C-alpha cells in the first residue's frame, strides 16, 4: 500500500471532541437523542437526512415485518451457540447474524438490485412488463432463481407482502418498485412455468426503494431487524433454555452413511 | 441428554401457519406492521407488551445514544473485515458485534446488575448512599472496576448522560435507578480515590431499569444499537473504502520485539 | 488513551521485509516450511520453540482426539449457516467456532486452570489427593461444576481419556497433571456424591500441561482442532447438504407456549 | 420443506456409540489418536484416506506457509475484539476467521478453480500455455483480477512460492498444476501488460491439487492455518495487549469529511 494522504482513513459519519459528539453533522445530544426514534435514526445514520413521514413509515414497517419468524435456522444457530457459551451473548448474536446470507435474508438486496435493473431498463416512460419479462428470461437462461419469489411455507403470497404494500400506499411512498415487483410476479408463470408469488424479501426492496432507501444498504434491513429478534430469543434462552434440545432433535434420526470398523454396534450418533 | 418431552423445544415468541404469523400473541400483519415503530417492536419482542410512552421514549433514546461514536475498535474490525470479504456483509457485521464484550459495551449490563444489587440491598425505604458505598467498597476490595464510571475521552460526565437523564425525566420514567447511579458517582471519589464520572454505559441501565426494561436483555441494547451503526459504516465502506487504510495505519509504527535470523534487514513489518 | 510510545503496537511473533518472512526468530521459508508439521508449528507459533518428541506426540494426539465427534451443536450451527450463506464459508466456520464456549469446549481451559491450582496448592512434595479434595470441595461449596468430569453419552470414562493417557506415557510426557486429574476423579464420588468420570476436556490439559503447553492457550487446542472438523463438515455440506434438514428436524415437534389471536389455527411453527 | 426421509440428516464423517467413536470408518482411539499427526488428520477428515508421503508433505507445508504473516488485518480485528471481550477468545478467533474472504485468503480457492479450468481446457496432451493465455484473456475481458498473482509487499515472487514448489518437487507431488501456475505467470505480462508474479495464494492450490487435495476444501487451508496463528496472537494479546493500541493508531490521523454543527471545535475523532 502506498504511504501518504491516500492511506488516511476518512469518514463522513461521526466525529467528536471531549464535550460533543457529532453524527452526520448534527449534535447527538442536542438534536438526536430524544428527538428521533431508533428506526428513523437508522435512516439518518445511512443517509445523513431524517426520513420524511413516508420513509419513516415504510422503513419501520419493513423492519417490523422481517424481524421475527419463529425458530428459523439462524435463531437455532444462535440459541445453540448461547447454550454452549452463555457468557458471550455477542457470540450468539454474531452466529445468528452470519445466517443472513445470499440464500436466506440476502434475497432482499438481490431482489432490490434486480428491480433497479428493470427500472433502468424500462426508463421513465417504458413498458415495465416487457422489461420484467426480459429480466426474468435472462435469469432463467442463466439458470438462476428469481430473487424474492416463492416461499417454502407461504404458497400463496406471504401475508407480509400485502401488508407492506398497504403501508406503502397509505404512507404515500413511491409505487414504482411495487409495480415492478408485481410486473415480475405477473410474467413468472409464463417465463418460468411455475406460479411463484412475491415473498417478503421482494416486498421489502419494492417498498423501500420507493422512498429512496439506498440500494447498497438493503441487506442491512433484514440484518438489523433480525438482530432485534435474536436478542429476544437469546433473552428467552437465558431463562428457558432450548439450545441443546434443538440440537438433540436435529440429529435424533440422523443417518451415518460411512463405513464402520469390524464389530461396531451402532448407537445414537452424536 | 434424556429423551422425551423435556427435550422438545418450546418458545413463547412466535408461531405461524400458512396464512398468519403470530408474534407474542399478536397477528404480525394485522396488529404490528405499520402500527408499531421498530424501537418499540424490540420492546414488544422482549416483553410481549407494547411499551408505554415513557418506556418508548427512554428505550429509543438509549438506542440512539449508544449507536454511533465514530471509528471505534468494533467499527474498525468490521470495516477491515468487509475490505477482505466484500461479498459477505453479514461477516463484517458479525465481526463488529463480537466487539460488544465485557470491557466495552457489556458494561451496560454489568452496571445494570450492579444497580439492581444496590436497589435490593437498600430496599424500598433504605439509604441509597449507604448501599452504594457498600457496593462500591465491595468491588474495590475485590479489585474490580466500577462498571459504567470513567471514560478515556470524556473526563467530565459524558454528554450523553445528562441528555438521557433529561429524556427520562421529561418522559416521566422511574428515577430510582438514576438516583442509584448518582449515589454511586457520589461515593466513588471517597471510596475509590478518583473522580470517575457516570458514563453512558451506566446511564443506559439507569434510565432503562426505571421503565421496566428486562435486566437480562440489557446487553442487547448496545448490540442492537451498534448493529445499526455498523451497517451505516459498512455501507460507507462499500463506496468509500478505508478498511485497508485503517489496517495500514494501525501497524505503521509497529515494533517487532522478537529475534531475527542472521543477516535479516528490518523492513516494514506487516 | 495516552499518546506516545506506550501506544505503539508490539509483537514478538513475526516480522518481514520484501524478501523474507520471520516467525519467532526463524526464517519461514528456510527453516519452517517443509521442516515442521502443522501441529508442531502450532506449538512453535505459541512458544517460539519447536516441540520435543513428547510435546509433539501429545499435542498432535490431543488435536486429533478433540477435532471430530459427529453432528455436535457447533457443527449443526455451521452447516445451517452455510446453507443460508453458501458463498461465505468463513462465516460458517466462524459460527461453529463461536460454539467453543465455557460450557462446551472451554472446559479444557477451565480444567487446566483447576489442575494448575491443585498443583500449586500441593507443592512439589505435597499430597495430591488432599489438594484435590480441597479444590473439589471448594467448587462444590460455590455450587460450581467440576470442569472436565462427567459426559452425557460416555457414562464410563470417555474412551479418548485412556488413549490420551497411553500416548502421554508412551511418549514419556510428564505425568504430574495426569496424576492430579486422576486424584480429582478419585475424590469426586466422596465429595460430590456422584461418580463423574474424567472426560476428554480434563484429559487434554492433563497431558498437555505435562509437556509444558502454555496454560493461557489451552482453549485454543479444541478451537483449532474443531476448525479442521468444521471445514470437513462444510466441505461435505457443499456436496451433500443437510443444513436445512437439521433445522427442519430441530423444530419438527416444537411447542409454542405463548398466546394466539382469536381464530388462529395452529400450523407448523417455523 | 417436504416431510419425510429426504429431510433426515445424513453424514459420512462420524458416528459413535457409548464406547467407541468412529471417524471416516476408523476407530478414533485405536487407529487415529497417537497414530496420525494433526495436519494429516485434516486430510483424513476431508477425504476418508490417510495422506501418502507426498500429500502429507505438501499439505503440511502449505499450512505452515500461510499460517502467519504478522499483524495482518484479520489479526488486528481479532486482537481488538479480544481487548473488548477478553473472556470470549472464541469471539476473537471468529472475528479473525471472518477476514478470510474473497479478497484476502479466499484467493487460494479462486486460483485453484482457475487452474482446474485451465487443466480441463488443455486436456491431457494439450498446450498449457495456450489454455492459460485463453483463460487469462477471458478474465481480462471481464475486468477481473487474476487470482493469486501480484502482492503489495513482495514485488518479486513471494519467497513462499519457490519454497512450496521445492517441497512439492522433493516430495514427488504431481507437477501439473505447478506447470499451469507458471504458464499463467508466463502469459500475464503479455495479456495483462503488467508483470504480476505468482503469490502464495496461487502456489497453495498449485501444489495441493497436484497431490489430490479436494478442490472444494481449498478455502479451508488458509482458514485452518490462520486459526493457529490467531490463537498464538490472542495468547500474546492476553499477556502483552496491543488491541487498543492498534485501534488508537488506526485512527490517529483520521479525517472527518462530514458537516459539523455551528461552533463545533474539532477534537480527536474517536
Describe this protein's structure.
4 copies of one chain form a homotetramer. Chain A is mainly α and 270 residues long. Helices cover 55% and strands 4% of the residues of chain A. In chain A, strands 2-3-4 form a 3-stranded antiparallel sheet. In chain A, strand 2 (14-16) and strand 3 form a beta hairpin. In chain A, helix 4 crosses helix 11 and helix 6 packs across helix 9 (176-192). Chain A starts with 9 loop residues before the first strand and ends in a 14-residue tail after the last strand. Chains in contact: A-B, A-C, A-D, B-C, B-D, C-D.
Structural class of the secondary elements of chain A?
mainly alpha
Largest sheet of chain A, in brief, is: 3 strands, antiparallel
The rough form of chain A would be described as: globular
Q: Please, how many helices of chain A?
A: 12
Order of helices and strands of chain A: EEEEHHHHHHHHHHHHE
List low-confidence stretches of chain A.
1-5
**Could you tell me which chain pair has the largest interface and how many residues each side has?**
C-D, 97 and 95 residues
Q: Beta-strand percentage of chain A?
A: under 5%
**Largest sheet: spatial strand order of chain A:** 2-3-4
Give the total of beta strands of chain A: 5
Distance from N terminus to C terminus of chain A (CA atoms, Å) equals 48 Å
Oligomer status? homotetramer
Helix content of chain A: 40-55%
- Give Rg of chain A in angstroms: 23 Å
Average pLDDT figure of chain A = 93
Amino acid at each position: 500500500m502506498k504511504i501518504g494522504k491516500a492511506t488516511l482513513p476518512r469518514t463522513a459519519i461521526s466525529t467528536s471532541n471531549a464535550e460533543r459528539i457529532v453524527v452526520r453533522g448534527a449534535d447527538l445530544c442536542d438534536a438526536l437523542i430524544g428527538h428521533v426514534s431508533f428506526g428513523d435514526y437508522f435512516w439518518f445514520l445511512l443517509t445523513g437526512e431524517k426520513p420524511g413521514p413516508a420513509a419513516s413509515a415504510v422503513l419501520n414497517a419493513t423492519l417490523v415485518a422481517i424481524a421475527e419468524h419463529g425458530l428459523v435456522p439462524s435463531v437455532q444457530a444462535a440459541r445453540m451457540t448461547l447454550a454452549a457459551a452463555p457468557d458471550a451473548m455477542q457470540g450468539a448474536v454474531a452466529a445468528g447474524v452470519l445466517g443472513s446470507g445470499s440464500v436466506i435474508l440476502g434475497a432482499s438486496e438481490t431482489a432490490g438490485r434486480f428491480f433497479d435493473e428493470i427500472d433502468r431498463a424500462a426508463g421513465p416512460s417504458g413498458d415495465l412488463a416487457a422489461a420484467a419479462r426480459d429480466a426474468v428470461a435472462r435469469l432463467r437462461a442463466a439458470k438462476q432463481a428469481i430473487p424474492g419469489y416463492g416461499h417454502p411455507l407461504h404458497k400463496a403470497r406471504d401475508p407480509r407482502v400485502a401488508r407492506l404494500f398497504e403501508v406503502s400506499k397509505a404512507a404515500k411512498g413511491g409505487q414504482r418498485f411495487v409495480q415492478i415487483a408485481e410486473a415480475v410476479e405477473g410474467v413468472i408463470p409464463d417465463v418460468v412455468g411455475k406460479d411463484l408469488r412475491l415473498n417478503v424479501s421482494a416486498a421489502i426492496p419494492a417498498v423501500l426503494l420507493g422512498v429512496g432507501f439506498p440500494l447498497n444498504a438493503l441487506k442491512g434491513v433484514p440484518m438489523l431487524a433480525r438482530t432485534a429478534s435474536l436478542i429476544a430469543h437469546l433473552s428467552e434462552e437465558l431463562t428457558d433454555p432450548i439450545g441443546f434440545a434443538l440440537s438433540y432433535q436435529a440429529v435424533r434420526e440422523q443417518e451415518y452413511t460411512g463405513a464402520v470398523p469390524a464389530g461396531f454396534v451402532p448407537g445414537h450418533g452424536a
